[in-house]
Records
---
Amino acid sequence: MNGPGKDADAAPEHLNITNNTQRNTMKSQDIAIVGILLAVGAIARLIATALVPSPIVPNFVIVFYCLAIMLIAPRFKEALGIGIVGGIISALISHSLFPPANLISEPIGALVCLAVFLALKEKMKVAPAVSTLIATVASGITFVLIVMVLVMVAPGMLYKAFTASSLYAFFTMMVITIILPTAILNTIVAQILYLPAARVLSRGRA
């Protein structure tokens, strides 16, 4: 009687070891996916920085960290980590007015993406597009606001050169010429890439 009982107890333990190994493998795969997508985003960011001689440039890192978040469905603290890495990449490859602002704007964009995607993914097929659109706008507006605050608190000539109306004009110009076009392009890319990427990922995990 004891022999079969021991075997029965041993089987679940073996299964638990196997499941834990699979979870660890999936975790490693998720990290690899994030790394690859952020690398592609860095290349896109580098190209945009070279082509757009503007104090604030389109940030295509956003669409790739959004894709990573939507594909692997991380926890919020993991999404925050992805956003921080995306912010570091964005800050390093930049000629913007204040590159460190990316360290705040990209984590916000990542968290917004995860929250919106989790809320919409079971309700609409265009959830990837909507999530990326809102995340890009949230990130872009956060970045511009940080730059504006920096200007307003800056001492000397930099502060005196700007008035309330000129700051409003600057914000409006950045939204119209940089944030919205980037958001639209990111939205299209995310929707096009998400479905095939999700299919390939599901096959790899099968």
---
Amino acid sequence: MGFMGERRVFRPGTGDVDPYRLLTALVVPRPIAWVASLDADGVGNLAPHSFFTVASVRPPVIAFTSIGAKDTLHNIVATGEFTVSIVDEESLEVANATSAPVAPELDEAQLNGIAMCASSVVAPPQVATSPASLECRLRHTVGFGQSTMVFGDVVAFSVDEDVLVDGHPEFDRLRPVDRDRRRRREATRAEVARDLVLLEQVVDAV
């Protein structure tokens, strides 16, 4: 079914228009980049970022956005390396826990009991239980107001053998989640409840 009704136009910078709420509602689904980095002294940082995408295939480049000057951004600019681990269904809650603000000298992985493992090329580790991780070196950053987009060259793909089919990652085995999973899950539950009510009405009518 198409949408042919009246449209409302929202102009950023006018009235009470909130571009953040509109962007996060319309640019969906958004995968979660679970970014691990090290500061100049080797202290680890692990945090989820939901503005994450592929920027280039040849060369392989990924990008994520830091809203505000967070520890992740400081570390990557200082050391030039980071990893991105895939957040799967089993790690969603603990990944969310690593978004809580903590002092820079505290390691979110240690605080939340998250096992990390060494990367093959870069210094920052990756989440051991993640089905796949990308090892990256900083290409450059681009600032936009209070946000900074981080571009990283992927220098290694680390993929668990159990998610590979004929040597290629299988989506159903990766079971990645995205920022809007909970919203869609709640909507699905509402749809199921509605269908059950309709079914009962049909049965009663028969």
---
Amino acid sequence: MIPMGKAFIATLGFESSAILRLVGEKGVSSGDVIYLVTSKIPHPRVENAIKSVKDFIDKVSPKAFVKTLRLDENRLEENIVTLAKLLKTVEEPIVDVTGGPKGLSLALYLAAGFANVGKVYITTETTGERLEIPTIQLPTYTLTSKQLEILKQLPNKLTKIAENTKTSKSTISKQLKQLMSKGLVYKENKTFCLTLQGKITLSLIE
């Protein structure tokens, strides 16, 4: 178990300058952790960027930790869940989405919203200015056991959901309307499906 101090979580591509600058300004000390989120497909320039971060941390604070998370950028939903769960374990994480593949930067930004992180950092390519970007704060819903049971049945038609949950169609219809009003479910050709928010919410609960 890695002792936790401050936690930096940053997407990383070919360049490490943005995260190094952020770490240098915020400071790093014993027990702090720097998570580098990068593609699972190896690339020599990415490996050099990871090495430069590790070398910098070894010099300024040898008892801090550098961890690398290698993700498939094509798995947006899965990556949001993975990163949101990580963010939820950290108090006031420092998040930077400047580097790395666009898909991973998007996943980390959205994950920050699901984890109730108020802002992320991004460094502009043209001026090198670092900006604080507010996250999209998603409402937290209290779901009943019946609503959770319904969510786990999707995608499905109303009649099939009622059969599988041994519940009347009128009750299921009412519950589905409530879930749709919360933005967790949508209807398409008589089939009820989970929205992205619904999928992430269900994954984080399970």
